[in-house]
Amino acid sequence: MCCLGMRLLVLFGLTGVSFLLNWAYPALPVLAWYALQATAFAFILMGVDAYAARRERTRIPETLLYYVAGIGGFLGTWLGVIILKHKRTKKMFVGILTGISFLWIALIWWTTTHKEAIFSFLGLNL
What distances in angstroms separate CA 34 from CA 13, 21, 57, 73, one per listed residue? Predict the structure, then answer.
């Protein structure tokens, strides 16, 4: 994925499929479907990159792995690091991934502890 257009296509594609899955299986909210898809997509990308590294083929750029972790696939990227043992020794990659993960954890914590403020700002009732 080289350009902004492809990255936006992936982002909107994941979002659109999340809404379709929520329509078909409403037991899980849209954000849960999105998180599951982003996690699976990130893990698959890590697997493809690990396979390419072992075969000495064209690799997936680290910026794409950062992007996918940043749009919500940080758990899948961590699963790729732990299970596939891929990019464990790259301190820069692990450091940036740790920062992205802390940002996501902070965002999740803040949104779950400030629901009333968010809903009142949006003009919605709980």
Answer: 10, 9, 30, 9
Tokens (6 digits) for 22: 């929520």
22-77 residue pLDDT tens: 899 888 888 889 999 999 999 999 999 999 999 999 999 999 999 999 999 999 99
Q: Which two tokens stand for residue 69?
A: 């972790």
What's the CA angle centered on 1, arms 46 and 63, to 5 degrees?
A: 60
Listed in sequence order, the residues at least 6 apart from 122 whose beta carbon sits closer than 8 Å to its beta carbon are none
Which burial class, exposed, middle or buried, applies to 22 when counting CB atoms under 10 A from its CB (0-12, 13-18, 19+)? middle
